[in-house]
Amino acid sequence: MREADLVVIGGGPAGMAAAVEAARNGVEKVIILERDHTLGGILPQCIHNGFGLHLFGEELTGPEYADRFIKQVEELNIDVKLNTMVLDITQSRIVTAVNSQDGLIKIKAGAIVLAMGCRERTRGALNIPGTRPSGIYTAGTAQRLVNIEGYMPGKKVVILGSGDIGLIMARRMTLEGAQVKMVCELMPYPGGLNRNIVQCLKDFDIPLRLGHTVVNIHGKARLEGVTIAKVDEKGKAIADTHEFVECDTLLLSVGLIPENEISRDASITIDDVTAGPFVNESAETSVPGIFACGNVVYVHDLVDNVTNNGYIAGRNAARYLKERAGDTVKANANILQVRPGQGVRCVIPQLVHGNCPEDVTLSFRVDGIYRDVMIEAKADNQVIKSVKKRITTPGEMESITLSREMLQSIESGKIEVCLSSLERKGD
Questions:
Q1: Do the domains 122-254 and 2-119+257-330 match in fold?
Q2: Which CATH number does 2-119+257-330 carry?
Q3: How confident is the model at residue 332 (pLDDT cuts 50, 70, 90)?
Q4: The pLDDT value given to residue 357
Q5: Order of strands, edge to edge, in the sheet holding 344-348?
Q6: What average pLDDT does this structure show over 3-25?
Q7: Which of 170, 260, 297, 341 has the fewest CB atoms lying closer than 10 Å?
Q8: Up-side HSE of residue 9: CA atoms within 13 Å toward CB?
Q9: How far lies 363's CA from each of 8, 317, 360, in Å?
Q10: Residue 420 phi/psi, 5° resolution?
């Protein structure tokens, strides 16, 4: 049985940020366990720019962004085990992992940070009828094939889903000479950032079909085309709207799922809406000493936000270890439950200590496109904070910050984040 002060599971932007911040806050023995052959997570295959605008004030590519943190990990002498798969964690913070060099590893950790990221939904999750030809990929797989492996998935492309990876791949495939026929989106609004809608679709005259989905797949050995159809408000295909589109490639950008299998095995409480752990303002899960950050908690829109979330987890893991060493960790009964209200789909964190020493930022996603709304935080039957927004969209995270004085004055034990003066924007 090995021992470590902090074990970070996942070496993407969240995991590296957590490890770096913990080391800077005095944690001596930090280990990052990463299943890939290099640190960086998804960033090495994201060769487009746009990363780091908020954190560094400049535009970086994914590899450049990752390299900055890899260098910090090296400078701080943080132990890194690559090609290492974590099999299990326990509530007593024992991590079981395996790799070809060490074999089976067991590590007794003082604290754990979960930073496993997320995975893409596949065709199997969509139940699209039709044959099973080659030429159907998730957008992330196609991105890796083009940017890392140097292969072109196809020449005539339809993209289902308007998530950011799908939008970016619409531009990437076009630049590589493919014809992107269209992007179909089931919802009446796009799922990605507005800047990606403009830069990746509008700038290249790629059609975006809102309220449309793929209802059939055609082809035997290779994809020959798809049938698309318009859908009603319940997402069901409307009769007489079917249209055949010839293509040899279908890219799926239909959502991301936080990687929480080992979290569930450790009996960490999972939010049914986000599919990530319940966390408090310190990024701590329902199991003391186990923290979670980045896309394993909820799917972020910007890597800068993922990194900041990692900083929070690393800083508070370090604080937990110091308090634990001095036997000062105490249960805090003054816990406020944070819940989504009108117009809001989910809020992170779900729990906040009423006497926390710092201001707390609540991040959330709305459930539709709204304009001229007030973002409100309510407690004790009154509005304690409000922010006016000209437009809100599901593809972009919103936030509202509550001061520690506001939190300390709440008596009901509940905070609701909602929108008021709602007016849905038309398609």
A1: yes
A2: 3.50.50.60
A3: low
A4: 82
A5: 344-348, 360-366, 398-402
A6: 98
A7: 341
A8: 30
A9: 23, 21, 10
A10: -125, 165
Domain at 122-254: CATH architecture: 3-Layer(bba) Sandwich (3.50)
| Beta carbons of 285 and 277 less than 8 angstroms apart | yes
**Residue 302 to residues 3, 52, 54, 142, 202, Cα–Cα distance (Å):** 34, 9, 9, 21, 21
Strand residue runs (E) in 65-102:
79-81, 85-89, 94-99
Distance between alpha carbon 65 and the CA centroid of its chain, in Å?
Answer: 17
Q: What percent of the chain has pLDDT over 90?
A: 86
How many other C-beta atoms lie within 10 A of the C-beta of residue 63? Answer: 16
**Whole-angstrom distance, CA of residue 105 vs CA of residue 262:** 16
CB atoms under 10 Å from CB of 100, counted, come to: 7
Q: What is the pLDDT of residue 200?
A: 96
Closest CA to 158 of 243, 97, 238, 100: 243
What number of H helices and E strands is found in the chain?
8, 25
Q: What is the pLDDT of residues 69-112, one digit of tens each?
A: 999 999 999 999 999 999 999 999 999 999 999 999 999 999 99
The radius of gyration of the chain from alpha carbons, rounded to an integer in Å, stands at 22
Distance, in Å, from the CA atom of 53 to the CA atom of 51, rounded to the nearest integer, reads 6
Tell me the pTM: 0.93
Domain spans in the chain, listed from the N-terminal domain onward: 2-119+257-330, 122-254, 340-420
Q: How far is the first Cα of the chain from the last one, in angstroms, to the nearest whole number?
A: 58
Could you confirm whether domain 340-420 is CATH 2.60.40? yes
Q: Are 245 and 226 in contact (CB under 8 A)?
A: yes
pLDDT for 301 equals 87
Helix (H, G, I), strand (E, B) or coil at 281: coil
Alpha-carbon distance of 60 to 193, in angstroms, equals 17
CB 317, CB 137: distance < 8 Å:
no
| Contact criterion met (CB below 8 Å) for 245 and 181 | yes
Nearest CA to 298 out of 377, 414, 186, 399 is that of 399
